[in-house]
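[Meeting: bench + compute handoff]

Bench side (C.D.) handed over the final construct sequence. Compute side (W.E.) agreed to return the predicted structure before the next meeting so the bench team could plan truncations. Sequence as handed over:
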Amino acid sequence: MIAPQDLQALNRLLQLEYRSLPVYLEYADPWHRHEDQEAVEALRHAAQDHQETARRLAEFIYEHDGAVDPGEFPMEFTDLHDLDMEYLLPLVVEAERRTIAEMEQLVQGIQSPEAKTLAEEVLGAERAHLDRFEALLKRPAGTG
């Protein structure tokens, strides 16, 4: 049996994934030039991964008799419609850093080995997305 506080932590992980900035930007349709295509693809990949991860977390929570709360997008995301990728990419990196910091705290508090393993997988995937976004951010403008 998974402790209620572990299910609560997994639910927060689900919210962080399902209501992430990359997922939001799937709907906000960032403006981009041809040179931004790699960043656009990284954003799409992260959004798809976040949605799949949220689904996995929801299934785990349901299987352990928990209630899923997908949450809502943060209100500050509403100002990000139709903005340029060059402007958005640093915001995505900062959002990913904040998400990872919160995830690290959540993972530390999880007691169930099964839940902890899943949470650590989520955290690892999030770190990989951050690495990709940071690499794109370091590239000189106009290099793809």
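W.E. noted at the follow-up: The mean pLDDT is 93. C.D. will use this when planning the next construct.
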